[in-house]
Amino acid sequence: MMMSVTGATLLDAIRARRARAGVVGLGYVGLPLAVELARAGFTTTGIDLDANKVAAVNAGRSYIDDVPTAEVAALHAAGRLKATTTFDAVADLDTINICVPTPLGKAKDPDLSFVVAAAEEVAKRLHPGMLIVLESTTYPGTTDELVLPILERSGLEVGRDFFLAFSPERVDPGNKQFNTANVPKVIGGVSPDCTALAAELYGAAIETIVPVSSPRVAEMVKLLENTFRAVNIGLVNELALMCDRMSIDVWEVVRAAATKPFGFMPFYPGPGLGGHCIPIDPFYLSWKARQSGFEARFIELAGTVNGAMPHYVVSLVSDALNSVRKPLNGSRVLVAGVAYKRDVDDIRESPALDVLSLLHARGAHLSYTDPHVPRLSGHLWPQGMDLEHVDLQTCSPGTIDCAVVVTDHSGCDYDLLQRVATVVVDTRNAIKNPGANVMRLGAPRHGVAMSETV
Ligand SMILES: NC(=O)c1ccc[n+]([C@@H]2O[C@H](COP(=O)([O-])OP(=O)(O)OC[C@H]3O[C@@H](n4cnc5c(N)ncnc54)[C@H](O)[C@@H]3O)[C@@H](O)[C@H]2O)c1
């Protein structure tokens, strides 16, 4: 079947870079995408409710580590990238990528309120010849069952008057090798023309395009990827607990297993899951599966194992302090690294927040060091208190009873950490030359536990 005249006109506009691109939600996903689209030659407008982000873009400034300010400044100066807080801009746009948050509600069910709000605003201004692509991670069926009916309220027909697709974002913040432009992009349109138009748009900015047959497939692809990680991290976390009991070094086991050139992929244990994706996305899938009467057992089990890791970390801190005859209650405990992963400033869902909360509930006197996170608001963790990053250089030896490495930032001075703290718990195998006062998660307790027995 031939593409509609409206579709063909849009296709030409995309090919000629005359199409005016829009990105709704200028966060970790949206800003890099807007920059790539602008770099590819599209005049790009970002729409975000956060006036600070909009002001930053319009001042030519980046607020995302992976996006250089020089790039935003150059694109803004060239008139190819700007931002606004109002959806009125939609009236002048041809394409829109929706990159708003998809968190979990209190009962761990999907909170699609941001997607609905954005789609409703777009629907009010939807005009013939527009391509809308949802990028927010969500359960299979969201594009067809939730977004499409909202857009159809405009009276326009999908596949003929306007075009709709889902394309999951796979960005890995902090990854120096892979970025928005060189990670293959999966695209599933509501109709073949929807897929073709979205492929044309992304193809201008992204090296490899992977078309699939429907939005549902594309939605499921993303959830498979993230569930794969959550389940494998759950497996290796369980192995770490097992190794602790059996006095085997789980890190050595994984390292040696990873020498197998096929059929094995290393995952590493740690203090629990963090970030906006891995702890959340699998529950979107299990929630949706439950609607079809299907229990996603691997997802639930991985969630239970991974969710218990902060408790295990606190038990290690308690054991480490016990080895120097100190109770957790009243001890000075420093958390090293509070961002959810190495060398990023993002603290969303960080296991450090759970660790802090559990330590606080047990009476520990808390501090943290993390140059990526200058301040930690008490609102972020239950019964939390405002804390500020402590520079280890300012700490005298012995001023900390126990330091616990929760995030292995590359800039951390672990020799210094071992000097300032009486005992250290390393949940990431970050310390390359651990002294006798270091206890590692999932490894034999040669030093700490045995040296101080009475
Ligand atoms: N961060 C990642 O590494 C990553 C990776 C892959 C996929 N994702 C997915 O991408 C989506 C966005 O994630 P993120 O990390 O960029 O989130 P983010 O919180 O960094 O950014 C979202 C932005 O959307 C804005 N926003 C919220 N509601 C809005 C609305 N109604 N209209 C306009 N703007 C609105 C917010 O102000 C914010 O700036 C989520 O579904 C997430 O799961 C994130």
Using brief descriptors, characterize the structure shown.
454 residues; eight-stranded mixed beta sheet; 15 strands; 15% strand; elongated; disordered C terminus; binds nicotinamide-adenine-dinucleotide
- What is the global morphology? elongated
| Mean pLDDT across residues | 95
Radius of gyration: 24 Å
Helix content: 25-40%
- Calculate the terminal CA-CA distance, rounded to whole Å: 83 Å
Structural class: alpha/beta
Give the strand tally: 15
Give an overview of the whole structure:
With 454 residues, this protein is of the alpha/beta class. The chain has 15 helices and 15 strands. An 8-stranded mixed sheet has the order 3-2-1-4-5-6-7-8, sandwiched between helices. Strands 10-9-13-14-15 form a 5-stranded parallel sheet. α8 packs across α10 and α12 crosses α13. It is elongated and about 80 Å long. The N and C termini lie far apart (83 Å). Residues 450-454 have low confidence and may be disordered. Nicotinamide-adenine-dinucleotide binds next to α5.
Give a short summary of the structure.
It contains 15 helices and 15 strands. The chain is α/β, with parallel strands linked by helices and 454 residues long.
Q: What topology does this entry show?
A:
Blueprint: H1 5-15, E1 20-24, H2 30-39, E2 43-47, H3 51-58, H4 69-77, E3 81-84, E4 95-98, H5 113-125, E5 130-134, H6 142-152, E6 162-166, E7 185-189, H7 192-205, E8 209-212, H8 215-246, H9 250-257, H10 281-291, H11 297-307, H12 309-323, E9 332-336, H13 351-361, E10 365-369, E11 375-376, E12 387-388, E13 400-405, H14 414-420, E14 421-426, E15 438-440, H15 448-451
Parallel strand pairs: 1-2, 1-4, 2-3, 4-5, 5-6, 7-8, 9-10, 9-13, 13-14, 14-15
Antiparallel strand pairs: 6-7, 11-12
Helix pairs in contact: 1-7, 5-6, 8-10, 8-11, 12-13
Nicotinamide-adenine-dinucleotide is lined by residues 24-30, 47-50, 53, 99-102, 114, 117-118, 135-137, 169-171, 173, 276-277.
